[in-house]
Amino acid sequence: QLRSIVIQVVLATDMSMHFELLTQFQAKVVDASALCGLTSRQKWEAMDQAQKVLTIQIAMKVSDIGACALPIEQHMEWNSRMQEEFFKQGDRERAHGLPPSFLMDRRKPGVQNGKNQVGFFKFIVLPLMSAWVKVFPECQSMLNQAQANHKHWEFLASADLDAGGEELISLRASDKQ
Question: pLDDT by residue (tens digit) across 90-108?
Answer without folding.
Answer: 999 999 999 999 999 999 9
